[in-house]
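INTERNAL AUDIT FORM
Audit reference: QA-55
Scope: verify that the stored structure record matches its stored sequence.
Auditor: D.O.
Record contents follow.
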Amino acid sequence: MILLTVENILSFEVLKEAKQMAGGNGNLDKPVEWVSIIETPVEDFVRKNEVVLTTGIGCRNDEKKLLSFVKEVMDSDAAALIMAVGRYVREIPKGVLAYADTHGFPIIEIPWEVRFAEISQAISQALHRQEHEGVKMSEEFRKQLLEIILEGKGLNEICTYVYKHLKAPVLILDKRGVIKGRSKNGHELEEIWQSYLYHTVDPLSMFHEETPESFSQPNMHWLDIEQESVLQILIQSAREIQGFLLISLPEPQENFFNDHTLPLLEHAVTASALCFLHDHAVLETEMRLRDDFVWSLAKGQVSSWDAALSRAKSLGYSLNVPYLCLLARPENLRVLYDHNPQPHASYEQWLHHLGSMFEEEVFHAGRTMQLKTMCTFQREELVVFVEVRSERNMETIFPFLDLLQYRLEQKLPQLTVSWGVAKTSGKQSFYDSFQEARTALDIGRRQRGKGYISTYADTRFDRALMALAENNELKQITDATIAPIVHYSKERGIDLIHTFVVYNQHKGNVSQTARALNLHRQSLLYRLKKIENMTGCDLDNPEDMFLIDLSIRLHTLGYDGDKEGVLERGNG
């Protein structure tokens, strides 16, 4: 489609006697979108890219008034000024023409006898034809791109179609920045994008910011990548971001967005969104398969290692590197949901979406640190297997965990997560590593509370106690020792267990213990006497102290933080 310009209208039959008096030939390519007849004052009656017809009646032969009029028309960003000379303005002053020439503004002179109505009609008809051609061209874009979708040709063919019309390399990416479609001559753009993605981490980041006022198109950004100007266009459907369309251009061009390119890009983005929706349905199935596979590894439900290798390859995973397990339990999901109700989603739907978000963040953290990852969100827990590259596993795991925690905090600042970190890593140690992470998580939550990171290596003492707890005789002795204290604490609201723990930590120093518990010395002595009376133990006897301490530890180890048990520490 040929856009109507000042040069085009000069070729109209009705303007055959017109003379260009100023503006230069290089300024005749300005687009024409409107036509009007204006006399002084101009005020705000002239629009951008408007051809202004005038007789100069308000200026007559006053050069100063005419120059002011021309300046006002120019300041309105008009396309050109056509002036009828002969009655009110017998000749356009040289000073006015010189000013217009200096600023590259076309001034066109026509004889007085030429009717404005005929000029206005000719331009309006040309604009109408242009609009009709634009609609026809837009419909052709829509039809051809829809055929690409219906024929199942996909994103590569959409890139090729856009390239054919713009003669510029094109890529289509998913929201992670992974290339899903490419056009001819797109290899260089692909290379610079991969480099940019490595340093940017999140391709969505710039769309979280407001679009600069200087940029007129929504959902589009110019990216300056290695001295290349790349136009990035958001692809979305139902307000959900699907991906991006990238076009490599010599330099940022505001006039790039015209009546030809805009419909093409709009229909290309719509077609791409349809492709993504189709692929998303397939991906949902694939994600379920991936979740099931990772969960089967964690549970040790793999029929054979060869079968696992084959299945991993089909799902895009590699089992030929050592992995270590992390287990995360978000502690306050129901509270978050209740405080931020989702109008169109049940708790189960919201939880499914949240699980996908967790898995996305694991992927981004792994990609940033160039580590292979596998994960699944099951039973409100996130199971993560992370590649380790050193015998000192924690040198890999803790930086990864720090980054993942940071990313999750950015998405959900109020989220509380407890972590369990395994010790065992290897190529076929998924079940053992998962069990260690589970043990570390459970013991950590019981001993330290919620929201901490617990490693399996730090639970040796607690695991030894767990082994002791299996002895029935020891269990009877410790239960008999601790039961009266627990009952009294729950009934009276005074935590004698915590009192003993602090007393033991201060090695029996009454003054230090009283200060730590913020108690009067006599109140503390009263509590200690109660402990002695109820347990039948002497707190001055090291063996009795050991028995009470062991009983409390075993009791605490068997305490489930989600059920009633030891009182919270707020009671002193």
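Auditor finding: record pair retrieved intact. Residues 208-216, 559-572 have pLDDT under 50 and may be disordered.
Action required: none
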